[in-house]
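tmp note - Ammonium transporter AmtB-like domain-containing protein
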Amino acid sequence: MAPRYAPSLWSRLPPLAIILQIIFIVLFAFFVEIEDLSKTDEEEFLNSYAVFQDVHVIVFLGFGFLATFLVRYGFSSVGFSMLIAAMAVQWATLLNGFLLTSRSSWTIRIKMKSLVDAEFCACSALVAMGAVHGKTNPVQLLLMSLVEVTGFVINQWLIHSFFKVSKCFTLPSTMSRAMSLHVFGALFGVMTSWVLYRPENELKHEKEKFSSKSGLFAMLGTLFLWMFWPSFNLALVMNKIIAYGTYLSLAVSVVTAMAVSVLSSPRGKINLVHVQGSILAGAVAIGAAMTTVPWMDMTIGFCASLFSVLGFRYLKGHVLIAFECHDTCGVLNVHAIPGILGWFAYVVIWLSRANDTTDAIRFAVHNICILLMTVSMSLALGTITGILLKWNLWRPQQDRKCFDDQTFWEFPHLAVRK
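out:
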């Protein structure tokens, strides 16, 4: 007989989701317009749409299937990822329009780039979601995504507003956005997970494991991310040369992740879960590093993958024991550490090429302030969000019902007859 799970979601998910959706529809009706396509070059539109499609695949297909490694949490991994991304895209379109692109008027004119920027915000929310994967209900995830997207966009607005740079510096919309997308989302999620910590998760949860079938589906999501990430970085950084470096870094990450996983294993075998995240670490780092030299791209990919595998093997368990922080998908190792590594590489490479000491000092201080502000905001908002999600109003599932689809999804063949 199937276990008796929590009551239905009638009183929680439908009211929140429908009310939010109606609010978004009303806001779009009053403030949003589509750009005049008659003034847009057809070839330019088709190129933009091709990039949008690649980013679309990463956000809705790649991240959803990547998280299906848990043996009893496949429906929720794909379904909740799609729900969160769909809601985050709408909210991000409004916030980006009001704060970043339409400051002088209340009219938001969206174009293909607006949708791509909104999906970057949704991607950051999905990164944060990975830290609390399996331990929250969809209502909590919706609230968490709205706060995360709000914080991410405000962080970008603050960078644009308060970190004005001279012509010799790279604009904040390049490196800072690539770095903060991963670092902000990962640290936000980790802090939320820390506040929501369950003592029962100190030891490995009985359902927090993977099977050959769930691992195969997760590997499918990893392959989609691996194949389309050069386009993702291209759209994120708006620099054509980044696509070449991302591909080279990804290739090196695969080799390094496989080798280090074997070397760090007591039995000398490859850990699938570790490899799935670590083969993407190089692309995360390159998005922030923005190098133009092939061997540098490959070196950064090697270091990012190395640190990622070692983080999965050793850091994740120590963070759980020492700080009581349970990071389900290891976003700290896949996104935060490689993102900071890429930022560090970017700063070091630029300083090594600087001819003027004063400009070098200003550049270093400028980028350190961007990183510190991003980290501070993500930690603070993550803590506040965790406190908000702990309220019994959202009716979180019991400890024994974590990492299980039956808490939220219909399984007719397992229904309990009364």
